[in-house]
Specification:
The chain is about 70% helix and about 0% strand. The protein has helices spanning about 10-25, 30-50, 55-75, 80-105, 110-135, 155-175, 175-190, 195-210, 215-240, 240-260, 265-285, 310-335, 345-355, 365-385. α1 packs parallel to α5 and α5 (about 110-135) crosses α6. The longest helix is centred in the last third of the chain and has 29 residues, at about 310-335.
Length: about 400
């Protein structure tokens, strides 16, 4: 991929910019989100349908989420709540619509870089929303995502994944602004008080740094740097009061919960119980599950599993599990075959981190996570096609 971006903003660029920014920074406004996505998708779809050039690899994305959505819809016949099935299918179709627009949009190296920069802009706007909405006394005393309707983790996860993207941009173009954005996104994700965001940041940025090594000596050196930075981050979280109040204390409670000692975090204990219960539901209904988004009716708190693997397994059984996970794991394995291409690192590491974090997060209908998956798949297609010497410019 080229390191420079042509300065031009035709309709497709503006449409994709709107989709990315609204998806990342205005997720709380469901009506505004839906309208913006539909308008953006309309222009992108229109231009591509006129050209009539859509690769088979891109259509595979529709097969993936389309079949998953279809099976999810069919679960209405055995689900306790058909309403939950229909609402969730609608959400999956919505992320499918925007994800396919991403695939249609990225048809050149320049657009791979543009969309990563759009992610950066959307994340900056999300931070600005937090700065405007969150009162001064709340910073460092409570988890602030709720002030903009993002819940406890959503804003932090958006920023943590964006940090991986901006750090990748820095490795490619060495522009100092991308290091600034990486630090900025990590800092605000930590201030949001998300343990998941801390793990994503360390794993994603650390692995990118190490994997970008030119030789074994440099790799060892970078491993030591990553370990040192990780310890420094942990020290800051546990010793700087604002960070300890919103994050360090929660890490302590989580470790107590895992150790089985009294005083453990009830949130962690509940999630462990949800996971155990979801596994039991799966073993009771191993083939087709209990219905899309219907696991919640099989636990005492009427809550989801907090684990994408177990949520899908309990909801849709082994059939639904395979329908959903064959695609991202296939993409990961295919991208690993091309690991010698350093530009493929964003695909491998971002996707791997998403799959790792699925053990603590339900992501199959989450707009931001599905946006990132569609972005890495589109970049994979672009890089793979170029490596074969195929011209990939569909405009």
């Amino acid at each position: 991929m080229k390191n420079r971006i042509k300065i031009s903003f035709p309709v497709n660029d503006i449409s994709m910019f709107m989709i990315v920014v609204v998806t990342l920074a205005f997720h709380d406004s469901s009506m505004f989100l839906a309208i913006s996505q539909v308008i953006g998708c309309f222009f992108i779809y229109s231009s591509k349908l006129v050209s009539g050039k859509i690769s088979v690899k891109k259509i595979k994305y529709l097969y993936w989420l389309g079949l998953f959505s279809l099976f999810g819809f069919l679960s209405i016949f055995w689900a306790s709540s058909s309403y939950n099935v229909l609402i969730t299918v609608r959400s999956v179709l919505q992320v499918t619509m925007t994800g396919f627009a991403v695939l249609l949009y990225i048809d050149s190296d320049d657009k791979c870089y543009k969309i990563l920069n759009f992610i950066s802009v959307g994340s900056v706007i999300l931070i600005l929303r937090l700065l405007i909405a969150v009162p001064g006394f709340a910073w460092g005393t409570e988890r602030v995502g709720n002030y903009i309707g993002y819940g406890n983790n959503s804003a932090a996860l958006v920023l943590a994944y964006a940090a991986i993207c901006t750090f990748y941009l820095f490795l490619r173009n060495h522009q100092k602004k991308n290091i600034f954005f990486t630090v900025l996104f990590i800092a605000f994700s930590l201030l949001c008080g998300s343990k998941k965001a801390l793990i994503i940041s360390v794993l994603g940025v650390g692995c990118l740094m190490i994997a970008n090594s030119k030789n074994a000596f440099q790799m060892v050196k970078k491993v030591l740097i990553v370990v040192a930075i990780s310890f420094l981050l942990f020290y800051m979280v546990m010793n700087i009061k604002p960070l300890y109040n919103v994050l360090g204390n929660r890490i302590e409670q989580m470790l107590l919960a895992f150790s089985g000692k009294t005083g453990g975090d009830m949130s962690t204990l509940d999630r462990m119980l949800f996971a155990k219960n979801a596994a039991q539901v799966f073993f009771q209904h191993p083939i087709i599950g209990v219905g899309l988004d219907n696991y919640r009716f099989n636990n005492y708190m009427n809550y989801y599993a907090h684990n994408n693997y177990l949520e899908i397994a309990a909801d849709l059984g082994m059939i639904g599990f395979i329908l959903y996970y064959w695609f991202p794991f296939h993409l990961l394995f295919e991208s690993l075959k091309k690991i010698k291409n350093k530009q493929m690192l964003i695909v491998i590491i971002l996707l791997a981190v998403i799959l790792i974090m699925d053990v603590a997060n339900v992501s199959y209908e989450t707009d931001s996570v599905q946006l990132y998956i569609s972005v890495v798949y589109a970049i994979f297609i672009q890089l793979s096609s170029r490596s074969k010497g195929v011209e990939k410019n569909e405009d």
